[in-house]
Amino acid sequence: MKSVLIKNANIVNEGQIIKGDVLIEEGYIVEIADSISMKSANTKIIDADERYLLPGMIDDQVHFREPGLTHKANIESESKAAIAGGTTTFIEMPNTVPQATTIELLEEKFDIAAKTSWANYSFMFGGTNDNLDEILKVDPKKVAGLKLFLGSSTGNMLVDDPKTLENIFSKTKLLISAHCEDETTIKKNLAAYQEEYGDDIPMECHPKIRSEEACYLSSSRAIKLAEKTGARLHVFHVSTERETHLFTNKKPLAKKKITAEVCIHHLWFTDQDYKTKGSKIKWNPAVKTEKDRDGLLKALLDDRIDVIASDHAPHTLEEKNNNYMNAPSGGPLVQHTLVALLEMYHKGKISIEKIVEKTAHNPAILFQIKERGYIRKGYKADLVLVDLNSPWTVKKENILYKCGWSPFEGTTFKSRVTHTLVNGTVVYENNKFANKSTAERLTFDRE
């Protein structure tokens, strides 16, 4: 494997920005110093020219739609979009077709990724009301965790039996990641709006149907169950200011038993954007008010919320262009998450150091991912070089998602990703995919 020397970079790592060089050999970072001389004629030199070198993003929640839904996306297409956006590692969800609710079906997804993924990968195992025996077979050192849908599921993945939930929480050693929305509340709200509008419910009603109350009821219930059973719980895509008060910043992340994630769309959009974006910003949980958006950012900055993710969940435009009742929730985001966060940096809302903490360091800590998430000697060289002053506009021709659209279409970002390295290999360079990725299955430092 060719060695790589990155020179003259602003290295962002562990709360600091230092100017220096990084040497990579055999996929690992072997030296970080003020100045490093070329060791071999076989070394590829990248002059960063004072651009910013970040650990690659670790996105802990994506839906890449393979197997079974590949008209929307697949692991190859979406992992390439991730690489172009500065995400070098992803954790994918189990609600594919078939659902990853047995060891055999889970390993089939790993086999696909081993052949086609451009980014490092792991997958969540899916819980149901009747697969506890299978859950207990999962090796925590080889699988990211267990995904439970406590609301808004596809197929039979809604886990709504209280006894089953308590059994799972009590017996699994896996980290439990949960989608929290109360189905009873949502169904009641939906019935009221259907009575008024039929199937043509205005898209602006989405956050009233999938309401703050629905989110809070489910999140608080899951947290109480985790506290009762001692389970390790991670609440996905927190979307309301009210929910942020369920989480604490009194402990360091490594000692927390209950953690939280926020997604880029809940930090960027508000309910006012439904007027222009319509179903393109229809997600579950819903994008809510400006107060909620500001409260989520505050909780992120004060460390009640631990990580930022994309919840990348593509659908075709044809599917999204249906009326409210028939337009699926979710949208493609993984290519644009980092540049959107850097736009927030330019606006003075968040520091680059905090972005790195929440997108790389903290996911590595939270999931106990081995040798990733930092720019450290002895760690895998998953790295991203970004130019903070190279404006570009999101257009159809530069969107890499298989579905071909983005809720950010027409947005101009000041920053761009110029290079992405996966396990020491330069796989993306100046808007082109360079070498075939050397992506790897994640391993975990767990008992």
From TrEMBL:
Enzyme class label: hydrolase
Named cofactor requirement(s): Zn(2+)
SUPFAM superfamilies per record: Composite domain of metallo-dependent hydrolases, Metallo-dependent hydrolases
One GO location term (cellular component): cytoplasm
Family matches, as InterPro entries: Amidohydro-rel, DHOase/Allantoinase_Hydrolase, Dihydroorotase_CS, Metal-dep_hydrolase_composite, Metal_Hydrolase
Transmembrane regions listed in the UniProt entry: none
Job description of the protein: Catalyzes the reversible cyclization of carbamoyl aspartate to dihydroorotate.
Family annotation (NCBIfam families): PRK09236.1, pyrC_multi
PANTHER family registered for this protein in UniProt: ALLANTOINASE
Protein name per Swiss-Prot or TrEMBL: Dihydroorotase
Phylogenetic placement of the source organism: Bacteria, Pseudomonadati, Bacteroidota, Flavobacteriia, Flavobacteriales
